[in-house]
Amino acid sequence: MSELNKLFKKLGVSTSDFLLTLKGDKWKGCIPYRLQKGLEAINPDAFFVQENKPIVFFFDFTVKKPDEDLFKKIWNLGGVPVVFFVKNGVTEIYNGFSFDVESSTLELFEAGNKKVSDDEISIWDIFSGKAWGNLPKPKNQVDEKLLKNLQDAKSTLEYRGLKSDYAQNIIGRLLFSRYLIDRGVKIDKKYFNDAGSFLQILKSKKKNLLYKYFDYLKETFNGDLFPIGETEQNDVGKVHLEILYKLFNGDDVISGQQSLFNLYNFEIIPVELISEVYERF
User: What's the DSSP call for residue 228?
Assistant: First the structure.
């Protein structure tokens, strides 16, 4: 019996219809399309679902080694609070919502400075939500950190004299642009063709080129979600472009220290999570 099968038996989920793998196409009928690409990028050995969304990941690293970006990918997906790693008879349980920047890993579930074991966590308590009364609150949850980064940038732009709606809309356009880049959508290369050249427009403070791109964005994607204000282009100055560069470069616009922005992967972050963050922003 494999390490994972032993764990499934211990958790009482061996025969559960909610336990799925990525083998074949059966799982695609249970998972919304918007989550499928991220799930394939993470590639768990198995996962437990609730209301057509994964809530627990299982990995067996007895033979293979984890992808170096695995923790970051799981954190970016959001919505998966518990991650089981098994290796050589040892089980580790990670908090899928809490990413530790210094170690670039998810944080282990602990109780009183002691690792939580698979004897102390029930899959059914996770399923019902009862487990959260006993588990520590997550830190650095992806949606909360993204929201804070955007709010800090918006308030700093306002402090530097930019109207609130102008600040919100220009951040919205740039956030949408990062989403397009990470999702592999082709942009006219006279503007940029990757995350690095996207940042270069802001770093070089080429405002005219930036607003030509915004016109292109509106025409190409036939949308007016982030309208350009009548005096916005005139009002936006070099100081504002510097703030926007810091935001998208991964610098905390208030403290000047590293933020989590350069850890965001909009190929994996579900689009509804981004929409929810923007509505709250």
Answer: P
The secondary structure of 27-75 as a DSSP string is GGGTS-HHHHHHHHHH--SEEEEETTEEEEEEEE-SSS---TTHHHHHH
pLDDT in tens, 202-221: 999 989 999 999 999 888 88
Task: Answer whether 116's CB lies under 8 Å from 82's CB.
Answer: no
Query: Cα–Cα distance between 232 and 213 in angstroms, integer?
Result: 14
**Whole-model pTM above 0.70?**
yes
Do 175 and 274 contact (CB within 8 A), yes or no? Answer: yes
The 3-state DSSP class for residue 189 equals coil
Q: How would you label 102-129 residue by residue, b for 16+ Cβ within 10 Å and e otherwise? A: eeebbbbbeeeeeebebeebebeebbee
Helix axes 238-249, 195-203, angle to 10 degrees: 150
One-letter amino acid for residue 164 of the chain: S
| Residues shown for the chain | 281
Mean pLDDT value across residues 264-279: 82
Is 14 within 8 Å of 8 (Cβ atoms)?
yes
The two beta strands, 46-50 and 19-20, are antiparallel
Closest CA relative to residue 56, chosen from 128, 139, 123: 123
